[in-house]
Amino acid sequence: MKVVEVFINYKIIMAKKYNNNKGFLIIEMSLAEAVIDCGFGILCDNCNERVVGENSVYYFAALNRLFCKECTDDIIANQERYSDDIPYEVRHYNHYAKILNLPVV
Ligand SMILES: [Zn+2]
Fold first, then answer.
1. Domains of the chain: which residue ranges?
2. Which pTM was predicted?
């Protein structure tokens, strides 16, 4: 299967805020939204596994990185959300929220 066909197959509009107990600003989205709309690559920025075939991928605004679900949940569990980082986090979150037609925070 060609890469373009993979993206077309996964072109599902599904971006939404991913709620979590630490309050991190995270956007859950389809791979097509991540690659075509947001310009991300097809590797998880933490484990470097290909995210092709994942149901959804996760933009972690505080780290300005795209992760698979497993890494996202690990990072939420192991990272603290520092108040000093919040303006940076909000700026990055809103940049992609606008692209994906999500409410800004
Ligand atoms: Zn990963």
1. 2-99
2. 0.87
